[in-house]
Amino acid sequence: MFRQQLGRLNLKLRGKNNVIGWTMTPDETRIFFQAQGKTVLTFFGYSSFYEDEKGMLQIAQEILSGYSPSTTLINIGATTGGVGAIYPLAKSMGFTTTGIVTNLALYYPESISNAVDHVCFIADKQWGGNLPNSNELSPTSKAMVACSDILIGIGDGEISQDEMVAGKAQGKPVTFHPAEISHAWAIRRAKRMGLPSPVSFLGAAHEVFGNQ
User: Fold this and answer.
1) In CATH, what number is assigned to the domain containing residue 97?
2) pLDDT tens digit string along 38-68?
3) Structurally, how many domains does the chain consist of?
4) Could you tell me the pTM of the whole model?
5) Phi and psi at residue 10, in whole multiples of 5°?
6) What residues make up the domain containing 154?
């Protein structure tokens, strides 16, 4: 708890983000987003490095070019890593940016992007995805899906897979663009966890959405 309080102080002193709440519920988050009166376009993807970040950003730029900053919010998971690299791009194109993330991220305040305008920290005991031994989404992922009007995946791990599956089940438009996670990062992670080297770098969501 002390480290989370320290994280709050760090972000307040940094002054780069408007924090809507530190321990929000999915319903509170949804109410905030609805009050903005804009279409919420959410990008899903790897939280770590992409093998081809330039290519990922090119896909994002092409998608963003089809929307108006006056009527569209660009939402991601608030952090700088991986798909969070879209935040500065969206800002440069005139979009207002938002982020939904578990309050566990307060342990790592330096990971919160400087280019996200409004951040909703969700009271959660995990980073997202389904709850253990359940098909029910954790609070963070529940908020992410509830607040999103359009879901765009560019590569994706297991958490994003769970969120996009839920979004599709709710009748929301879901578009997926295959992209590889950093090979070197994935190999290092597998070695650190005592697992075999990956045979594919396309991510968990590709198994579900890659051929659609």
Assistant:
1) 3.40.50.450
2) 999 999 999 889 999 999 999 999 999 999 9
3) 1
4) 0.92
5) -60, -45
6) 2-209
